[in-house]
Write a sequence for this structure.
């Protein structure tokens, strides 16, 4: 009997998208477009938050010594302004003179480098490329480029001042701003939100203070070393080295390279001393200084550091590379604080110790703030979270150093 195929009914797949879903999608796209248009404003806000996170522990320390908050803020900002003015007055004029001297000595340095590279067949092509390079054309100033440069500098200064004043306003009116923020957040999420804010303050403050300390120490070390070795233009090289030290991974090349090149004219002994001293300090900074200065503020694995730097540099260049580490640390902190189970990790048990402490803290907060305004409730949430943070740190120290 012949096989007669049966016809299958045609299945029609229909996608019914509701108007509410379309409206939400339009809102999300409009929000992303608006964020792109307001990138500069967001950068000002992030810079202000960085300043607040950096200065808040210093102001809190002053308050713990019974200094009124307003006076503490005034003292901290006055000290920063005075220190900035002194640094500019003591370094910028000399730095400009040394940069001009470096520019005048550039042909001699290039000829010396070309002669050294031409000695080997492997580096001879580099010598020829260096000989024919026109560095003067890179710094030629035209009226249009001067106008564009001055406009850019003016914009940077304006955004910097906006960030400073926004941070100052946030520090002065902290309680009112915090109360307004807590007023739009559900009461049952106040404790978790407070812990997130405190952890962000620790991450941002520790990162910025660590950068300032390590960069300042690098600049001071380079200046003393180059001055003792008689290397010319020590101040300009030290300032450049301190700024370059901010950049992870490529910072050592930008600090050691110019110092090594500047010492070539002082003889082999000076070259060896500068090179060995710079390498030793870079090793000391990475092995000893950075862990001590940063402490447990970031706690990032090396793989996460490399990936974050690549992503940040690709998206926003140097600014993205500088912001990559605190952003990565903040994301990992949020994953931990929100109890998100990552692939390959066991899900957090509902009755675990962490969940029990969270539930106990939220119940205590609800009892203490029943019927209380948001501004006062925010202060209590911060106090409870800080107490818990201190207790957790004390327990961690006890576990790390058990009594024999």
């Amino acid at each position: 009997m012949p096989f007669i195929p049966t016809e299958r009914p045609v299945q029609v797949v229909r996608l019914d998208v509701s108007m509410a879903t379309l409206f939400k999608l339009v809102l999300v796209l409009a929000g992303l477009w608006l964020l792109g248009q307001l990138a500069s404003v967001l950068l000002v806000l992030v810079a202000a938050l960085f300043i607040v996170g950096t200065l808040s522990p210093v102001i809190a320390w002053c308050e713990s010594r019974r200094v009124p908050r307003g006076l503490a803020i005034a003292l901290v900002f006055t000290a920063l302004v005075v220190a900035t003015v002194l640094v500019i007055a003591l370094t910028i004029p000399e730095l400009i003179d040394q940069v001009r001297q470096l520019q005048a000595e550039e042909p001699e340095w290039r000829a010396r480098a070309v002669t050294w590279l031409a000695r080997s067949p492997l580096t001879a092509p580099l010598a020829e490329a260096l000989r024919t390079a026109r560095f003067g054309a890179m710094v030629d100033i035209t009226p249009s480029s001067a106008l564009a440069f001055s406009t850019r500098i003016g914009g940077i200064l304006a955004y910097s001042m906006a960030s400073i004043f926004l941070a100052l306003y946030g520090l002065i009116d902290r309680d009112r701003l915090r109360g307004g923020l807590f007023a739009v957040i559900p009461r049952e999420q106040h404790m978790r939100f407070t812990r997130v804010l405190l952890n962000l303050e620790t991450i941002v403050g520790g990162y910025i203070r660590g950068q300032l300390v390590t960069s300042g120490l690098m600049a001071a070390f380079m200046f003393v070393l180059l001055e003792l070795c008689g290397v010319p233009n020590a101040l300009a090289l030290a300032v450049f080295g301190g700024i370059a030290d901010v950049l992870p991974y490529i910072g050592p090349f930008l600090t050691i390279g110019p110092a090594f090149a500047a010492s070539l004219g002082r003889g082999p002994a000076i070259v060896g001393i500068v090179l060995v001293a710079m390498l030793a300090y870079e090793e000391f900074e990475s092995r000893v200084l950075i862990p001590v200065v940063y402490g447990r503020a970031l706690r990032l694995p090396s793989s996460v550091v490399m990936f974050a730097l690549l992503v940040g540099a690709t998206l926003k260049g140097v600014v993205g590379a500088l912001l990559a580490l605190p952003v990565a640390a903040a994301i990992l902190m949020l994953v931990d604080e929100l109890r998100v189970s990552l692939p390959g990790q066991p899900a957090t048990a509902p009755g675990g110790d962490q969940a029990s402490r969270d539930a106990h803290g939220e119940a205590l907060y609800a009892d203490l703030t029943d019927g209380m305004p948001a501004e006062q409730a925010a202060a209590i949430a911060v106090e409870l979270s800080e107490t818990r943070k201190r207790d957790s740190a004390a327990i961690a120290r006890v576990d790390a150093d058990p009594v024999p």
Notes: The chain has 14 helices and no strands.
